[in-house]
Task: structure prediction
Amino acid sequence: MANIVAKAMLEWATEKGATHYTHWFQPLTGITAEKHDSFISLGKDNKVILNFSGKELVKGEGDASSFPSGGLRATFEARGYTAWDPTSYAFIKDNTLCIPTAFCSYGGEALDNKTPLLRSMEVLAKETLKILKLFGNEDVTSVKTTVGPEQEYFLVDKEMFEKRPDLVYTGRTLFGAKPPKGQELDDHYYGSIKPKVQAFMKELDIELWKLGVLAKTEHNEVAPAQHELAPIFTTTNLATDHNQITMELMQKIAKRYGLVCLLHEKPFDGVNGSGKHNNWSISTNTGVNIFEPGETPYENAQFLLFLSAVIKAVDEYQDMLRISVASAGNDHRLGASEAPPSVVSIFLGDELQAILDAIEKEEKYDAKEKEQMRIGVHILPKFPKDTTDRNRTSPFAFTGNKFEFRMLGSSASIADTNTVLNTAVAQVLKEFYEKLSRAEDFTLALHDLVKDTIKAHKRILFNGNGYDESWIKEAEKRGLSNYPSTPDALPHMLDEKNVKLFSENKVFSEVELKARCEILHENYSKILNIEARTMIDMANTLIMPAVSSYVASLANAIVSAKVIGIDTTYEAKVSLKLSKLNAETYKVVEKLKEAVAHANTVTDAQKSARAFREKVFPVMNELRELVDEMETITAKDYWPIPSYGDLLYGVK
Ligand code: ADP
Ligand code: MG
Result:
């Protein structure tokens, strides 16, 4: 029945000229016919109006006063407006019709991540289309960016989770000594999935499919208790909405199995963190993937131009890409053993790199036939996926027919990163179009453009090991930016070239950028404030008292042992060591309290974030070190919170 209603609505709306609304109705099959009564009507000028329970859906108004504003508006201007995003499916969740919407302020500034993302997709589509026309692709009428975000996460036992205030309040462990067995054996990655986890994954897939989310593969990840979900790629906007739904459902469904899903970037120190691999490409309405190298010299030339555009865009806006993944959580991951470093670079694979080198130097390409690569003349060799996919350490890797950006953190929305990527590439394509459209000899101009671009931006290309310390030094020599922490990175959002990029392409106005920069700084400070206070609380009320009881029990044992004359070396040594460490812990807790109090007096958002990073964060680390050392010599019965071993190996 519902299907018939949806179909009828679809036909009706299409007839009224609402062509691009068609896919709204596909997921509506869960709505009963009665509920559709007032769903659709015809307004003035024959415009289609969508209603639900008497409310107009296309535009709405709500109170946005509790939204962080970053100085965008005063409380009396707190109205926020929502607008239905017709490019993303509406869906039914918990018997409620959910409508993907854009959200903006009274003054029209974007308050959400969707609006800038849509703006960036539009500008990239426009510039891509212009270039495609230059190559004579007359049949192409629209293009879109596509994304498939692979999502990493941890599952831990709910009872254990609840015994850890750090996990409850901050999503990560603020204390915890390393277990005797970590991930060194890599046995989890290919190991069998535990029955409870398997059941969770199955239900998650089914629930996601019901909402139209194209979950594809579920498997274990490198760290114990770590897993991954990959969807089938789709339009960036949909992929972004779907990823949000995926994260929400992961958390909800985990609870049904007595589990908690951790989406934090670094829940466990010294263990792999979680990221989100943003697989990105551009495709045409004729079904062509722009980053598929193609089979004719002609297609290859077009591919090389788009490839050069990405190289230039990533080089020129490497700081913005870094900023788009900056968060307190991701700071623990970038540059730690498993994740890409905080320096952005591109991996192309040896074959493609050799081709670009040959083009740049006008040398012969050293493949089967030693020929000079001439754009528009020669056919590129095929790049099988396994030659381009080997480097797992690169932040930005070409993987055969798409790019995989791996710096994004697991809890982040994929919107910001894609907004930056789309806008940067659009800007470069615009510059390329200026040059190519005026050229007398197109092929020659193209050849020169690709050659000059490679020459000017090859510093961003790096095919080696991104985890290697020596790369960071080399990157510095090449002049690449390296912002290890969020407060290091964020201020560059307002660098002149970045403001220019976003405002000229109408993706963010300067006001919107400033507001976002402020909000991101505030968020950073808030997170560190909560983490530090949680540590203080746990040390005061759980850890120090537990250690003190254990020391007391050892001291009692010594006294009674003396009576019968048995050896008390262990009791004496350990109680002495623990009491010293506990006293030191007490001092550091006091120091941390002061540092937090001071950082909270700083009102400027940027300075406050710096104060937390420079004055609070190091003391948090100092405290953690002491507590973790005490954990290794305190009897397990006395230790007040589940250990790393309990958490990482606790799910059966
Ligand atoms: P794997 O990494 O598991 O070998 P793939 O390389 O096929 O598998 O895909 C990894 C992710 O990249 C998936 O989410 C997939 O949907 C996505 N992906 C594949 N092709 C594209 C594309 N053209 N644009 C965007 N994402 C893509
Ligand atoms: Mg991947």
About this structure: The radius of gyration is 28 Å.
